[in-house]
Design a protein that fits this description.
238 residues; TIM Barrel; 16% strand
């Protein structure tokens, strides 16, 4: 791994491939992990608990977020209690709303009152950020996952939203603002500039950290050489 600048933001690996998770864990770059049902489905996982317990048997000293997958509040709570039981380093991910758009704030407060560590996910709007802030107490252990990448996908600059969130949550010492769904390495440095506590990144994006301060002339040459090699390998003819 290239020598990186001193970053305040902690990088959490986002994914559901056990081999990738263990690789980046052993490399020592990341400070935690997150996953979600969509990532699990993409790699063909069918046994949620077996996967979670398998990775937690080896990742015991870093935070790991696992998400509920029900759409009903009582069932979400039941699943949250099961997920919590998997380890002291587990944060239970609760979506900010269910699929009907109903806020999850009452459930979130109820789970926090049980001493649960949460990761409140899929947040995109200022209303959601403010609504969660209003129900939190200083002792609540909460990761505030704001999907900055998805905000940017709509053509909006997420930087002002993220800076505002960091300021809003500054007096909650156990709450951590997370920049979710980054699209490029630049987002890691942007999250750091905003004062975000955490940013998620896929293993592919983490690998690109090796490009820090890479000479652009050399990078141009590497790119041309790649095009040439691939054309030769494909056997193109005109």
């Amino acid at each position: 791994m290239a020598t990186l600048p001193q970053l305040r933001v902690a990088i959490y690996a986002d994914g559901a491939n056990k081999a990738d998770i263990l690789r980046v864990y052993r490399e020592g770059v990341v400070k935690g992990f997150t996953t979600n049902p969509t990532l699990m489905a993409k790699v063909g996982l069918t046994d949620y608990a077996a996967f979670a317990k398998g990775v937690l048997s080896e990742v015991k000293d870093l935070p790991f977020s696992f998400e509920v997958f029900s759409d009903e509040w009582d069932e979400m709570e039941r699943q949250a209690l099961i997920i919590k039981s998997w380890g002291a380093n587990v944060n239970v991910k609760i979506p900010i709303t269910n699929t009907k758009g109903e806020p999850a704030l009452k459930l979130i407060r109820r789970l926090l009152d049980q001493g649960m560590k949460l990761n409140v996910t899929a947040m995109l709007t200022q209303e959601q950020i403010t609504g969660l802030r209003e129900i939190l107490k200083p002792q609540d252990d909460v990761i505030v996952s704001i999907f900055a990448g998805r905000i940017a996908d709509t053509g909006l600059d997420p930087m002002p939203i993220m800076k505002h969130a960091v300021k809003d949550y500054a007096d909650l010492p156990s709450s951590k603002v997370l920049w979710a769904s980054p699209r490029e390495v630049l987002n890691i440095y942007q999250a750091d500039e905003c004062g975000c506590h955490i940013i998620t990144a896929t293993p592919d994006l983490i690998d690109k950290l090796n490009l820090y301060k890479k000479d652009l002339n050399q990078y141009s040459l590497d790119t041309v050489q790649m095009f040439y090699r691939d054309a030769q390998k494909a056997g193109f003819r005109l």
